[in-house]
Design brief:
heterodimer; B: mainly alpha; about 80% helix; globular
Chain lengths: ~240, ~230
């Protein structure tokens, strides 16, 4: 991977679940420090495309390159890939039996063999970054949905990924809690983190996206800067933006 | 025809009861520890992608769950003897009980594993944890926590079922009772005392499991959630 090559790139990616074609020749790429926002109706393939980047789904054909890893290769070192890629899900998925600190230190200690004291320092740092410094010893169920999602982001950040993937991370939250999570993501973007996010928050997408990819029926239907949301070139995007989602 | 109970001759033999009760607890403890290990590995085996291992584990679980414990004990007892191995009745009893409770533990643990949301496992995979690390850190403890009441009930049942090993003369509580009643001709009194002793043993075991749960599941301790 050269300095200027994209951190994430998908080329002619096809993927079917049985007879249902979910990705039909998807192409997009994300440069270092850029924020790519994937939008589209439910079932348009955006979440599947995101999951393919971290190889939670395998593809039928095409190429996916992420941080120098050939993701579609059958012999890919998945654990090496996933040390470079952080992923945050809609349903937080914090480990309920561990405190927030233990949730965050688990992977650095187990995977990166980091000393426990150093991992705890890092946990405190990433929690402060997401505004949850005082929740170190809390269990997930003691936190609100927004706090849990911020803790999940902190857990990914503790692994110091090169790119972060966000899969509809605010869909389960009310507007107030959504705001606190989006602020954290905005701060990450301002710090130069490379990100790919699937979201229905159009206002947020307008403000943060370096690139917007509108997916429709498994294809990249329209792509461009955030300005395409204000002036869609296709009726499908116009309708999508008009209805909100 | 009046009921004439006389516990004195039976109670005189309390050291025998004590030894029998201790033996029952030892048998149960050994069977539970090894049964829990066998059962957990078997539950992992049934969930593994390896069809041969999964089938072997299923065969074991179904074979044990569909045959009587006494028959299993005889199979181990006479089976080992017929191929030239001679073990004490205690060893055979402990082995048979471990094999028996292992199968039930496997079923209970499998239910526990299946109760872990796939999202938890995906999150762990996303953090680059290995398969072993995921089982160890993300699945095992929460799964055990979820099925802990079922698991401990099964273990208490196992302790009670260990009375069947009296049939191969393992010197546990029921075997001792059989001996005492034949010695004193006070069968009813003897078995009343034995029943009380089993109740006490059950309570002791349940208290032990409660304390173990307290140690194993710090979240429940902190948040005051009942097991």
């Amino acid at each position: 991977m050269t300095k200027d090559s994209p951190v994430v790139s998908l080329k002619e990616v096809h993927k079917s679940f049985g007879a249902l074609k979910v990705l039909d020749g998807v192409d997009f790429s994300v440069g270092r420090g850029d924020v790519l926002v994937l939008i589209g109706r439910s079932g348009s393939g955006k979440s599947t495309a995101l999951r393919c980047i971290d190889r939670f789904e395998t593809i039928d054909s095409g190429e996916i390159h992420v941080c120098g890893h050939r993701v579609d290769a059958p012999d890919i070192d998945l654990r090496a890939l996933r040390q470079d890629v952080g992923i945050v899900f809609q349903s937080y998925n914090l480990f309920p039996h561990l405190t927030i600190e233990q949730n965050i230190t688990l992977a650095p200690v187990s995977v990166k063999r980091m000393a426990k004291a150093e991992a705890r320092e890092r946990a405190a740092a990433v929690l402060a970054q997401v505004g949850l410094a005082e929740k170190l010893d809390a269990y997930p169920e003691q936190l609100s949905g927004g706090q849990q999602q911020r803790a999940a982001i902190a857990r990914s950040l503790a692994m110091q990924p090169k790119v972060m993937l966000f899969d509809e991370v605010t869909s389960a939250l009310d507007p107030e809690l959504t705001g606190e999570v989006l602020k954290v993501i905005e701060a990450l973007a301002a710090d130069g983190m490379t990100m790919v996010m699937v979201t229905h928050e159009m206002g947020f997408a307008r403000g943060i996206a370096d690139k917007v990819v509108f997916m429709h029926a498994g294809k990249v239907h329209e792509t461009g800067t955030a300005s395409i949301l204000a002036a869609p070139a296709t009726p499908e995007l116009a309708q999508f933006v008009g209805t909100g989602f | 025809m009046g009921l004439n109970l006389d516990f004195s001759v039976v109670l005189e033999r309390w050291p025998l009861f004590w030894d029998g009760a201790v033996m029952t607890l030892k048998l149960a403890a050994l069977a539970i520890v090894f049964g829990a290990i066998i059962g957990t590995f078997c539950a992992v085996g049934r969930n593994s992608g390896n069809r041969l291992i999964a089938r072997a584990c299923t065969l074991y679980v179904e074979a044990i769950r569909n045959t009587p414990l006494l028959v299993q004990i005889f199979l181990v007892y006479f089976g080992l003897a017929s191929i030239g191995f001679k073990f004490s009745a205690f060893s055979v009893a402990a082995t048979a009980l471990a094999i028996n409770v292992g199968a039930y533990t496997a079923e209970i643990m499998r239910a526990g594993f299946e109760s872990i949301p796939t999202g938890q496992i995906e999150a762990a995979e996303g953090l680059a944890l290995s398969r072993f690390q995921i089982y160890w850190h993300v699945i095992l403890l929460p799964a055990t926590e979820k099925v802990y009441p079922a698991l401990t009930s099964q273990f208490v049942l196992l302790m009670l079922a260990s009375s069947v090993t009296s049939q191969i003369s393992a010197e546990e509580l029921t075997a001792v009772a059989n001996y005492i009643q034949s010695d004193t001709y006070r069968a009813f009194e003897t078995y009343i005392l034995v029943a009380i002793a089993y109740v006490v043993l059950s309570l002791v075991l349940r208290a032990g499991f409660w304390a173990l749960g307290f140690a194993l599941f710090p979240r429940r301790r902190r948040l005051g959630t009942a097991l």
